[in-house]
Amino acid sequence: MIQSLPLKKLIPSPRNVRKASDVLADLQLRADIAARGLLQNLVVRKATRGKFEVEAGGRRLAALQALVEEGTLPKNHEVTCLVIEGEESEARETSLAENFQRLAMNPADEAQAFAAIIESGATTENVARRFGLTVRFVEGRLRLAALAPCVFEALAEGTITLDMAKAYGAVSDTDRQAHVYAELQDAWYQITPDTIRRMVLDSTARGSDPRAILVGREAYLEAGGAIDRELFDDEATESWTDVALLEDLAQRAMEAVAKKTANDLGLAWIRPTLGTYVSHDLVEGLSRLPCEPAPLSEGDAQELSRLEGDYDRVAAILEDEDSDEDEIAKAETEMVVIDRAMRELNDRPPFLADELKAEAGAFLVLSRTGEPSLIPQFYTETQVLEADDDVVEPMETGQGDKPKRAALSKRLLDELAMQRRDILAIHLANDPALALDFMVFTLADADGHDWRAKKASTLVGPIASGPVSDFEAKDASASAALAEFAGSLEETWRAGETDVERFELFRSLTEEARSAWLGHVVSRSLVASLACEGDRSVPLHEALGALLDIKTANWWRPTGANYFDRVPKARTLEAMEAVGGPDLLSRHSGAKKAELASAAERIFSGNFIGEAEVKAKAEAWAPEIMRFPNNNCESEHVSELPESDDGFEQVSEQAA
């Protein structure tokens, strides 16, 4: 039966099967209801004292209550509800059915919907505000809607991924997009977003292209390739028009070199890429192997010692005011030779122990000079250290009469550290000024190593991997926000053929677009850390977190899967006592661990019947190791109600 009920009579049902939520999605839902009202009825069941328990629609209820609190809706707001009857088991099944029988929208459908709204006269800013999204997200979906029909259809059917579709969108020329899509249909090698982006940006390749140098002019022509040559062109400037064929030949050449190199070095595998660097897609799921610079042989050690003596001798000549011009000129020439020889001896590639080679692999990249180059970093497809949940390590040691805290597993600590890193990263990505300061300081304070490559700068900023190679917090708000942030970056500057051209194109971007790139490259370099002592402690992260005023509870909530099922029972009871005092503790102290974890997940999501003060403390709670400084409301020993938080809105406004 459909009824219109006052919002104040609706309360969450303990039988609602949805326990975990998402901060970003909840804010989007709140904005949507504020703009359009409630589009789907709540499913309720009569309770005591004239109240109705919401069996399905808990997120909608929370959004409505939040809108009333902020004054958007009146306190006497009426809500259209479907009132059901039956046993508790039937109500729980209704809740499961409503939540389970859902299908997330395909990005292609989202793109078409947004495009239709914009065509009807709305602005991107207006759409973003009404749906609780960033302007950058809406603009990204509009770019998808403008893809070539064949590419858009492939995205809609799931033939290509969202990242691949975005790579096709690196150029606005839909004919070029369709041409590259057709060329890649018969590709035998792995197609990555980088492959697509490289091909759509390059309609032809010059004879000086690294791929052309690798393949060779004669081999390309023999394979049926075509070359356009103008009057004053030479072999370096002529245009090779069959880029798909060139990619295929280059990939085969790299495969052959990789196979031979793996055999020569005794490695399990070497994977080639036509890129000049190893992208994140290639190393995902792999673990880095420990290795150190190869030891000096006895002869090399003696030679280095001799060179150091020669260096001191020549330096003395250069420093002596009485040295004549001929002596100084000779000494300067000799100093260059000595310095180069010492550099060659000191810049030794990493040494991998023989016992690790059977499972080890590396990547072969194509240098800008067309030479296959082995990256001096080794990986394995199995974890270097088994992260077993049965292996525990202590988090804190007792001080004085204070008892030791319950220990947590190494695997759990690693996963928590990676999720905490993502929370810090999304905040840093949206604060370009702080990101710039952090980047400059980090580079000024670090010792670089250029591996003898001639570069304009020794500045490096590799993507930091995590201690757990097979872990991905797919449902975490921070991780999802980071992925969306990276996907919204403006990449048209990659069309430049040389680094000078690319730099000029990059400088022509808007200040907002450049700032987004700054936040991205700095935030992705963050390592995983926890607020504790020991190897996982990074004091500078605590300083950054304090400056950004990060409230962990807004970006990460403890669930059975990510926390309570995997910590000792005493740790869960300790958290309950922190937010609910002795009453909440005594209520659950006799429960078995599995029941306790389930109850804790419900309580710390705020989805339980209890005092408003206890619920507020529970929703603001986060383990001490996940918190950042100056966030008193997140303490494991919550002493006061948290203040209203507008942290996410600040991040969204900066991102927009």
How would you characterize the overall build of this protein?
This protein has 656 residues and is of the alpha+beta class. 48% of the residues lie in helices and 9% in strands. The chain is built from 26 helices and 17 strands. The strands form five sheets. The chain has a five-stranded mixed sheet with strand order 1-5-3-4-2. Strands 9, 10, 13, 14 and 15 form a five-stranded mixed sheet that branches. It has a three-stranded antiparallel sheet with strand order 6-8-7, with no helix packed on it. A hairpin with a 5-residue loop joins β3 (42-46) and β4 (52-56). It is globular, with a radius of gyration of 30 Å. The chain starts with a strand and ends with a helix. The model is unreliable at 384-406, 445-459 and 631-656 (pLDDT under 50).
